[in-house]
Design a protein that fits this description.
The first copy, chain A, has 383 residues and is of the alpha/beta class. The first copy, chain A, has 14 helices and 10 strands. In chain A, the strands form 2 sheets. In chain A, strands 1-2-3-4-6-8-9-10 form an 8-stranded parallel β-barrel, surrounded by 6 helices. The first copy, chain A, has a two-stranded antiparallel ribbon with strand order 5-7.
Chain lengths: 383, 383, 383, 383
């Protein structure tokens, strides 16, 4: 149990700056009270999540949403708040030029613009000290024949190579894949195989990031995790949960058992280290933002604790013996354990309140920002 | 062939006013040139679609997007353009009050407001002479436990009953179902069974509308069509096509064979009449709007022509004989026929250009609206 | 807690006779040791499940697999073993005549034969005292056009009406639906809506049975449960679990959270009574049969216990207040509770061993049947 | 058109020996008249398909189903019938030893046995002159925890390496992937990415084979085809079609537009050569076998003809111009063309009847085999 607590204490979950801003569906963005109006306020909110959970010390930025004049100042601001800058997320999907693609666009001018943005993100990594660039491309096509599937791969490869070459010592990029949306007929990086194949060719600084909401129905995500770890190509996670498509709900809310299985494969595959980034990528469309993030961090933590509890010796023995029910039971024993008392204890040992949700709720922070953050433009997807 | 031509000549496909405005995904709405700025301009664009296809004589309105002071004037404007007002579409999903639902909201005040909007839509039907109200509810929940699934059905039933009672002579409403989006865990009318059960209880003025993009993967839509026709409960279609979710692409673009099978069941089930409304409900996110609608109308027309070509006597004989391959071949013979020459001929008989896409492209209409419609706010989802 | 224990003590889960025989996929049936060779031996195995769990007192039969000369004798045998005969399951899918359908077959002779079988099943209900007939039809078509979708509904309705009329006092039938398999293009009862519509027309003795593995990806099963309970049309469950299709794995093995949500809706909707039959319908292709059933009964029991633990007053208050995270948290608190100690305690109060799996494993029963049941034909799907 | 005809004349589609035997689902195998009883009779039936289509000159074997004492004699027999032996398909899923896996089984003895079978298949390639080994593994697990996902990859890699090393000059193997069935929780080669990664490591003699029925819902298969061709790793196809799962219906029956798109990517990617094997892998559960194969071959041929008709210069110009509707229209023009007259003409130029289905039906072959093939054991899956 000491080992488990030590492991849990060392866990690091990164929250995304955009989770603190407004978000919604194509039908409606519902505004909330107290939403940040700039990157500084987003960091302040993220610092709250860390203050109550103790395991969310970094914040991912999204460029250009989090563009500032002075990144060193922003990084300093973060440090003052007790957090740090995490991954830099590029954005090549919200400019009118990108209607038919960014790095895979048929027009070389648009591709140049998109690649330049990616290179600029590396500059921001240099300025902020971030070591990770996250690349998600909305590129794809809506209609069969609209563009040439293979030529788009050539263009993608060319842009990725240029960005790869620009990466400095200790820097890497994570390539994200997504089955569909916003492109509907074909996306240019639809699955882990595509991302993997590109990363293998590029080299060790290119790795795959698994967004748990980006798969076809029926996909076994933990298999992908196990496989990528075996290949040394798992760079990290964008955690969230989904019932149908890329719903971007709180991680663990739709299928907590799946989250547990994923965390088990991470641990079994040696991925429970700093080499694999555990990031949240969620939209709190209807629930309050900061509590939504706190709950999500706790959900990952609970799944991790359960995965750490698996009796791996017993599991391995049952597996070797071909004892189907016995092996399954070992896993389920860990999953069925209520780890909340253990985590409450751990938090107290870390000097935190045992119940982060309750502690935040009674802290007065929400009332403060609701009162203060009036006027100005609320941050949201695209701002 | 004369019969088939007569049937095709009588076909009526309704285009939606919102298809002429800008649309997009949650990631980005790409603006296009020449997009209408008010309902009057939308009707003008819709009239173009009818002018070139000859079978799109009505336009669906969306309230409040198409709210005007004087609906009689709008209807007159439509008539002057050679088209008429079709179904009235309600909208209870774009007000901040509806964050947790409209007619199923836990708060009675919000439910009242939503139902009042629906009743107002019936007023607009009276004012415009529309006989059809289309009800789609974005209502649902994102998280297990968020609200009570059954209580929401009670509230839904109550609101529907009030609207039903308000319907006048010759008026009806169509209840739409949708698997998910914008609610992710549960929607309050997720499938045809739910819509059907409510409609059966209400009576003959309540019918189900099938949006072809609103089903789970693997759903056999033509079965639903056949079943609802058998029950007298198929009120109409919202046509579009999808590869993954509710993609709202041009109908027939993703699976033209499916569209043909649907049209075959419509005809076989006696639904190829004015009682079943054939409506488009699409978003042209990246392609130009008017040509997108023309192509869509043509796609439905081609599928209809093929379905009319099915040799039903031969089909029935093969089915009765248990001749699996023979029966399938009868259907496929019709599907594999190139009906474009027949339709070109029909158009010429109707005094139209044989190729609507080409005729529109060279008409100069787009250049005209691109030049004229500068300034003002472009219409879009939500406006 | 006393109430919860009382409720759990009253729970009744029915195991299926066919779960004790061999089963497999289309690729291979793997034989196991000690498998029963006749219905008497199946009942003996089922009695073991009841002996160790205390809540599995009835056994479903499958006709003709469980055909015997003297059903009264079989029922007596069951009673002697401490169990009773549960639902009678019809089988109109394993005769060469049914290649193109049974009650929906284009040939009236085959339909007659199929309906006669269903009527015979009611005779067996009379003979065994069973009050429930379960109707699953493999009927459907593989190719578009193969048969007429609507005519098949007419035939189905005709057969169901005949069977309905034959039902005696206190008897009912449950109509099962299934998305696909063994028919691939269309099944004649593909979804709950179809089953529901037929049952509503027939009357109160016709109800819908929900097999948890028979839905399209993304279907919210607990919504269906809630809806059918609201309509008084939920007759029972065929429990099992699935990752992809109709995998027929142990219930709760694939998504224990979903099982919990289903049980919550059952309880909330007043379905936790004898009116709703809780049946297992599973195939233990690779795991041993009796332990597979014991584990499954325990999984349902654990989900039930958690569902009973939900603080419904707190839940309702949070729902009414629109507190999304709070309401979700109430549900999750119950789900995250480890109910195994409670259930162990309950079993001891019932005079049972606290750990049914361990108790069975050390009982020597398996060794006994493995030694005794040598020679003869092992029972399996189709025998 | 001359070029297109020349290309179509050169097309080669391989039919599988097992398609001529009985097949079914886990629920029932329906026996048909005239079904072959040994590999010699299967080849005779396959020769009929070639005789009427002119483009099905080879037959895939399945070991041990098609085991004979003298493969040279079997090959001679094939030649006498006008056909040749195609790919050798291994079978490591129908022995009781393989209940928990074959090459990935936890027990080294079983793995040895499975690998030995694969090596024996290479011996049979030597004996028959076949140059292609097709590897499909049913390996996987049904329950989380049942076995170690990663260890199974290690075992798979080890076995594949041994088989790879055994391949002679001019021989290759094709590795097949499959999402699920008969394993339900995880399969050991679930997707193209897994197959690809193994093949890349092994070298040029290892390639991926795409079974069109083995994907998750929503997967864009033609993207995979385009990607694998770009990487030089597309070895061939197992063609069939599906509505839901691995239905193994006639290719082109469920989604002819998808088949066309696949063939378009094959041609565009330079894969329309002898390097890519076009094989059928289907089960004619309810339709007659030989006509089922003839129809399937024709379906692939029709899709190919349409794909060859695509005006690639016009397509490329529209794509470069960002003309979404124009580019889509170029593709659809080809798809909407009725190619049956062209193919009838081609057949007559090849000395064949213009309508293969009709020609076979009136040939008397079926009546002959139905009369002759009485007694003995009909071939089927597993025999």
């Amino acid at each position: 149990m000491t080992d488990i607590k030590a492991a849990l204490r060392a866990q690091r979950i990164e929250t995304p700056s955009w989770a603190y801003g407004n978000s919604g569906t194509r039908f409606k963005v519902f505004a909330q009270q107290g939403v940040p109006r700039d990157p500084y306020e987003k960091l302040a909110d993220a610092a709250q999540v860390h203050a109550y959970t103790g395991i969310a010390p970094t914040v991912a930025l999204h460029i250009p949403w989090d563009k500032v004049d002075d990144y060193a100042d922003l990084a300093r601001h973060a440090r003052d708040l007790g957090v740090g800058i995490g991954a830099i997320n590029s954005n090549v999907f919200q400019d009118d030029d990108y209607k038919l693609g960014s790095v895979t666009h048929p027009d070389a001018r648009v591709r140049r613009k998109a690649t330049d943005h990616l290179l600029e993100c590396v500059d921001i990594m240099d300025a902020t000290g971030s070591d990770t660039l996250k690349l998600w491309f909305s590129d794809g096509i809506n209609y069969p024949g609209q563009d040439d599937l293979r030529a788009r791969q050539d263009r993608l490869a060319e842009s990725l190579a240029e960005v790869y070459d620009r990466l400095g010592e200790g820097q890497r990029f994570l390539l994200e894949y997504k089955l569909f949306e916003p492109a509907f007929y074909a996306t240019d990086v639809p699955d882990w195989g595509t991302a993997y194949a590109h990363c293998v060719k590029l080299g060790p600084k290119a790795q795959v990031v698994v967004d748990t909401g980006h798969h076809a129905p029926g996909t076994n995500i933990e298999f992908i995790v196990a496989f990528l770890l075996r290949e040394g190509k798992l760079g990290g996670f964008d955690f969230n949960s989904r019932f149908y498509a890329d719903d971007d709900l709180m991680v663990g809310a739709a299928d907590p058992f799946q989250l547990f299985r994923i965390m088990y494969e991470v641990i079994r595959g040696g991925g429970f280290t700093d080499e694999v980034a555990f990031m949240l990528d969620q939209c709190h469309n209807i629930e309050p933002k900061i509590p939504g993030q706190i709950r999500s961090v706790m959900n990952v933590q609970e799944a991790t604790a359960k995965a750490l509890l698996v009796d791996r010796a017993a599991l391995s023995a049952a597996q070797q013996a071909g004892d189907v029910l016995g092996a399954n039971a070992v896993l389920m024993d860990a999953y069925n354990t209520d780890v909340r008392p253990l985590l409450a204890e751990l938090r107290e040992e870390m000097g935190l309140a045992p119940d982060p949700m309750a502690a935040y709720a009674t802290s007065g922070y929400f009332e403060k920002i609701a009162a203060e953050r009036v006027g100005g433009n609320q941050a949201g997807w695209g701002a």
